[in-house]
What does this fold into?
Amino acid sequence: MLITNLAILVLAGFVGYAVISKVPNTLHTPLMSGTNAIHGIVLLGGLIIAGVAGDGVLNKILLVIAIAFGTINVVGGFLVTDRMLEMFKAKPDERSPEAERPPTS
Amino acid sequence: MTHPLLGSFFQDRNFIQAAYIVAFGLFIYGLSGLTGPRTAVRGNRIAAVGMAIAVVAALLTPEVGNWGIILAGVAIGAAVGIPAARRVRMTAMPQMVALFNGVGGGAVALIAWLEFRRTGGYADTPTYVAVFSVFAAIIGSVSFWGSNIAFAKLQELLPGKPITVPGQQILNAVLLLVAVGLGVAIVAGSHAEILIIGVLLAAAVLGNMVVLPIGGADMPVVISLLNAFTGLSAAATGVALDNTALIVAGMIVGASGTILTNLMAEAMNRSIPAIVAGGFGGTVTAPAGGGGGGEDGGTVRSTSPADAAIQLSYARQVVIVPGYGMAVAQAQHAVKELMRELEKRGVEVKFGIHPVAGRMPGHMNVLLAEADVPYDHLKEMDEINPEFPRTDVVLVIGANDVTNPAAKDQPDSPIYGMPILQVDEAQSVIVLKRSMSSGFAGIDNPLFYNPKTALLFGDAKGSVSDVVGEVQGL
It folds into this structure.
């Protein structure tokens, strides 16, 4: 089991490297916040461990905090990335979308 | 079994494993969409679907229980995370990312602690579980506290200047040794809970101590590094809990953070250890010395919005170089307005963006995208540098060190060797500045004394708006 997992770990590292290398500088902020959301996967750790480590007040408190942290990470991360990327989508063929912004002049 | 909704098929280990495989497949597929602005939105959503599948699969695991706790945690997390993500301003994105990164690390550290408590100090688990859990505890804790400090600095709750204490490096080394030493004791078979608490505490102090001395301009590197840390700690948690989804997702983030960290460090011509060891502010000596060649005594030429407007309107090509100052002044919409006015007059407008402009990788791009500046107007450093000699006017807005020619020709300058935007090769340069103070790095910029350069003093947003008004009046 350990060896299989280590193999997965190494391969995933290389896959990640290959995929991410192609992301242009311009999209680095969304990339960072998107990968941020993905490491929110630690939420799974909290969920799985909740069933077996939920005895005692301290454990319960730690679990709630861990799960809350994981949820913030996942939900917040994906939402904020979505917001950012929506702005990049606005095409060069100018159709001034965006619910009116006060003119800056 | 208190599980509400299911038949045993869905609780089958293989089914859950298969769902994890689908999930991380979607992560990878989704992230590969981030290579272009058109596919990026969909890519992010695909990754989010992957995450939803992974969460559902995890909830199907037979051992899952304590639904009250799970619901409470998810509800609190959603109540905090959703409004924060919806309301945050684009200029505040770096601190938001730091915060989200931090909570991820915090979750990892807490899970390691819980796993320790559950197993009575990893009593009956294979050694590798202890090794990976302790690793996750250390890195997760460093990441949590480091990210919090980064957040506090970016949010200006703490001063952006480096905060140092004497003997910093030695102290950090000692803290790391303590954390690792206690970890080794746990792996070797000690079950006292004080050990894991000690590991978490030593790592927490280390996280604080490492980020406190780092100056604002180095933030892009720090944020990327902490991002990589959280990813790696998640992967380690995955090995300890035997969960492939965690391993793959964590490693992808680890790889991404590592790539970004390297890119940022390269763009500043600094090594990662040097940055972690302490910010510019502490190391810079007065550049006045001798080699400078009289810049210090040089005079600066200031200009007015009206003159700047004329200069810009009659140019063929204008390159706008934004920096952190644009973010601080929230000037991106005014800048976009200026672009539009100039384009109406047939001026070619491009944006030259340095990789470390702002406080996180790609920070300027996000702000300009928010203001609806078309994606194809944003040029990376290597693309725009050859264009400067045929550019009539460069407009520098709140950027300093990334345009500093000292990086090219003054070997004694602290930023010597850093790749810069070579704005001094353009026909003329207009620099928008609040005052004559130097950049975050505290380094004098000979560009300001260049006869080609004119300075327009004032708040960036106000100055740009004034120029727009003048251009409209022409």
In short: The two ends of chain A are 64 Å apart (CA to CA). The CA atoms of residues 15 and 76 of chain A lie 25 Å apart. The helical segments of chain A are 2-21, 28-39, 42-50, 57-89. Residues 92-105 of chain A have pLDDT under 50 and may be disordered.
